[in-house]
Design a protein that fits this description.
Blueprint (H helix, E strand, L loop, with lengths): L1 H10 L14 H8 L7 E5 L6 H14 L7 E5 L11 H15 L5 E6 L7 H9 L6 E7 L7 H7 L3 E5 L5 H8 L5 H10 L11 H24 L4 H13 L7 H10 L6 H13 L3 E8 L4 E11 L3 H4 L9 H15 L3 E7 L2 E9 L2 E8 L5 H12 L6 E6 L7 E2 L2 E5 L3 H5 L5
Parallel strand pairs: 1-4, 1-5, 2-3, 3-4, 6-8, 10-11, 11-13
Antiparallel strand pairs: 6-7, 8-9, 9-10, 12-13
Length: 427
């Protein structure tokens, strides 16, 4: 235990070391801060490499700045090989007890556990610490799998947690980080680069491709193949490639099976359905259900899928320019998901509305297009929205150089002005 504790000291802030907190993401830290000061377990979720660790460090920094004793903050990142010996909740409990004794910690202790799903039985110790009546703990944990909070686990923790889903950088964060002006040029650059922070400082295309290939391998091998004991690795890779190539398209599990069969790849609906759910649980893709606007019910068959970050498509395929409209659609979806909206694809008879977004009792209908300068395209995009009978707000978002204002009560917005406009919309 002494050797592990020595390693632990390297990564904690018990002396006066400066904390490497990275780029400030106050949208998340301010939200999390509202839930501090109690025994609720703060659960930080999201795809690998979106910046969860930096957000935890930013919270640690804010605690120290507020006057919390550095020695009362315990931080463990399970992704680091130095902590491979912490395999289960009993190992972690021993380490925490050793830390308390060595540092003679008094008072409330703040526990930060990064990638906690790598510790077997982690839910047992988090539950135990959060209910300890002899010692007050406040827990912040992060993870890269949506099944961390399965229905069974949620019951186990009995509602004593609050979760926060972290996304890659949005356009607003991207231009602040890169110190770029708002506009079409920087937005196109954002669409091509994606929002994974570590990509921003890689100088060459080759290095970016290598980084993303390694990240995908980690997600597929560690979060999917290892966790779910996937037998057909090649099939999983083929499914992943199909999803990347078909962002924003409507299809069913059966359609995937038929496509793979046309490529002489034999499988079945059950296997593809399982593999698809595993990929979704790693947060690398998002599934969007269709909603019948007239019938007011969810359509359970065909669905759409969007990438959590466009970089996976941009650097691992050659279709950026040809698929710019789909890239924009993907980026708009992620923007509204990151802002906390529930999203559906709208079905209007034989026509489609790209997004129905909801928050509370309010909703908005959104069409996304590369350009609406062409009269035929404009008639289609605005026309679909005009057919909706209710009075909720309707909007068209595009990459046109300038906004065309309102048309029959429907506002046209340039994609790079979306956040500026959205601030003025009451939800």
């Amino acid at each position: 235990m002494i050797e592990i504790f020595k390693k632990l000291k390297k990564y904690n802030y018990w002396n006066k070391e400066k904390i490497a907190v990275g780029f400030s993401r106050k949208t998340y830290t301010d939200k999390i801060a509202k839930f501090t000061g109690n025994n609720l377990i703060k659960v930080i979720l999201g795809q690998r490499r979106v910046g969860k660790s930096y957000i935890l460090r930013q919270i640690i920094q804010s605690l120290i700045e507020s006057g919390i004793n550095r020695k009362n903050i315990f931080y463990l990142n399970k992704e680091l090989v130095d902590f491979d010996d912490i395999g289960n909740y009993k190992d972690l409990h021993k380490l925490i007890e050793f830390y308390k004794k060595e540092l003679k910690v008094r008072g409330k202790i703040y526990i930060f556990l990064d990638e906690v799903q790598e510790i077997d039985g982690w839910e047992k110790i988090t539950n135990s610490l959060s209910q300890d009546h002899k010692q007050i703990y406040e827990l912040f944990i992060s993870g890269s799998n949506s099944k961390m909070l399965s229905s069974d686990l949620a019951t186990y923790l009995s509602g004593r947690y609050v979760e926060f889903l972290i996304f890659p950088f949005l356009y607003e964060e991207y231009i602040r980080f890169k110190k770029l002006p708002r506009g079409k040029e920087s937005y196109l650059e954002f669409l091509k680069t994606g929002g994974l922070p570590e990509l921003f400082n890689l100088p060459s295309l080759e290095m970016k491709e290598h980084y993303l290939s390694a990240l995908i391998n980690t997600v597929l091998l560690k979060d999917v193949i290892g966790r779910y004991k996937v037998k057909d690795v090649r099939l999983l890779e083929d499914l992943f490639k199909f999803l990347v190539d078909n962002i924003g398209n409507i299809f069913s599990v059966n359609a995937i099976v038929q496509f793979l069969d046309s490529k002489r790849i034999k499988t079945n609906n059950e296997t593809i359905g399982n593999y698809l759910s595993y990929i979704l649980e790693s947060y690398i893709f998002h599934e969007v259900e269709r909603f019948d606007i007239k019938g007011k019910n969810i359509l359970s068959n065909n669905k759409k899928y969007y990438l959590n970050d466009l970089s996976f498509r941009n650097y691992l395929s050659s279709s950026f320019d040809a698929g710019l409209g789909k890239h924009l659609e993907n980026a708009i979806y992620i923007y509204f998901r990151a802002k906390g909206y529930k999203i559906f694809v709208g079905n209007l008879g034989k026509k489609e509305v790209d997004f129905i977004i909801e928050k509370g009792q309010r909703k908005k209908y959104i069409q996304v297009a590369y350009s609406v300068s062409n009269k035929k395209v404009a008639n289609r995009e605005f026309g679909n929205l005009q057919e909706i009978g209710d009075s909720y707000t309707k909007m068209v978002i595009s990459l046109d150089d300038t906004s065309f204002g309102f048309q029959n009560g429907i506002e046209h917005i340039c994609a790079w002005d979306l956040n500026k406009k959205n601030k003025n919309i009451s939800f």
